[in-house]
Amino acid sequence: MLHCDALIVGGGPAGSTCARILTRAGWDVLVLDRARFPRDKVCAGWVTPGVFRLLELDPAEYRATGLTIQTITGFRTALMGGRPVETRYPRAVSYAIRRCEFDDFLLRRSGARVRGATPLTSLERKGDGWIANDEIAARVVIGAGGHFCPVAREVRGATDVVRPVVAKEAEFPLEPGGSDAIGELPELFFCKDLEGYGWCVRKGDYLNIGLGRRDHGDLNPHIEQFMHLLEARGLARRASRVRWHGHAYLASGTGPRPLVGEGVLLAGDAAGLAYPESGEGIKPAVDSGRLAAETVIGAGGRVDREALLPYAVELRRRYPAVRPTPRPIAAVVKALGRRLLRSPTFTRHVLIDRWFLRESN
Ligand SMILES: Cc1cc2nc3c(=O)[nH]c(=O)nc-3n(C[C@H](O)[C@H](O)[C@H](O)COP(=O)(O)OP(=O)(O)OC[C@H]3O[C@@H](n4cnc5c(N)ncnc54)[C@H](O)[C@@H]3O)c2cc1C
Most buried among 50, 313, 326, 337, by the most CB within 10 A? Predict the structure, then answer.
């Protein structure tokens, strides 16, 4: 039997952040991941400066490692096929990283023991601890295995009632002349029914394109339309030839996932924390990974549900429930929204500053 103080299932941003803080506090931590790192993750790789602050990582320090990091100083936004509005800033308002590099860097930096290529196959409560895969004994388990985290299934028991946002993405190296996209200025293309958006994010010699929607219908016609648009604009000349990867996530406040149980906490996508307007999930993952570690450390050796409950309370405060808009009001809001997307003032102050950059957070 292999013993550890904390078993973290999933080595993404939530898991590696939690692992780093626990390890620094002297905990014996084991991170289990079904993938062998470096691994890819379906994601645009857009990160706000707040992510770097929470990670206690200077973007310049990250750049100095030689890994890809694109500085972003503005956005182009439009309704699909419409005329774009350009919003520029005199400073870096975001960055674009490659998840295969970023996540591997963070996991290595955590200092924790890592077991890659090892999925969690069983989790059993034994006494006041857990036995995982019949061979790992841990006092506390942190479920950070993303949207399909097996620990989340263990904690909630039933399936999710709320349906997730579904998305498809592709990231690929650019051939010379393969794209007119500008790295500093990612583009966002909102679906005409405002149920989702596509993106085109250039990171040096790589291009990331994708589209996510919350209406659960068939994503393919939207992807098709998006590909034609990207090709017509010269943003991705190979768009219809790339391999797309699908994934899903729960927006914060829309899912009823419990966040703690006896000796167990959920963090990141496993807890369903992505911001509902933008789908940004890396920051909530890092934030919750930190908070999970701080809660466990602060509980003074206790890992029972009651001792972990402050974590759930604080997370619900930071990521509150979203009340669904009544249908008739939603229709009016959408009609207005389509017009407002043409307004540079609305785009800068509401869409980008408040909903995407969340400057006040
Ligand atoms: C198409 C798309 C685009 C996105 N773009 C952005 C963006 O640009 N910016 C942003 O902030 N957010 C974005 N997000 C959201 C973001 O990717 C996630 O919120 C974020 O990755 C969550 O981090 P995490 O650590 O919780 O989970 P993950 O990053 O998903 O990591 C979970 C880890 O758990 C492992 N795992 C899974 N199952 C098991 C198992 N059974 N046993 C062991 N290990 C397991 C996985 O291998 C993985 O390494 C996007 C999401 C999608 C779907």
Answer: 50
Helix (H/G/I), strand (E/B), else coil: 265: strand
CATH pick for 2-45+99-162+251-318 out of 1.10.357.10, 3.90.1150.10, 3.50.50.60, 2.70.70.10: 3.50.50.60
Ligand 1 mean position to 43 CA, how many Å?
Answer: 8
Full-model pTM: 0.96
Tell me the residue length of the chain. Answer: 361
Atom of ligand 1 nearest to the CA of 268: 26
Choices 2.80.10, 2.30.29, 3.30.9, 3.30.200: CATH for 57-97+163-249+346-361:
3.30.9
* 156/135 Cα distance (integer angstroms): 24
Cα–ligand 1 centroid distance for 14 (angstroms): 9
Ligand 1 binding pocket mutation candidate from 34, 37, 40, 43 (most atoms within 8 A of CB): 43
Contacts of 316 (CB under 8 A, 6+ apart): 259
The per-residue pLDDT for 161 is 56
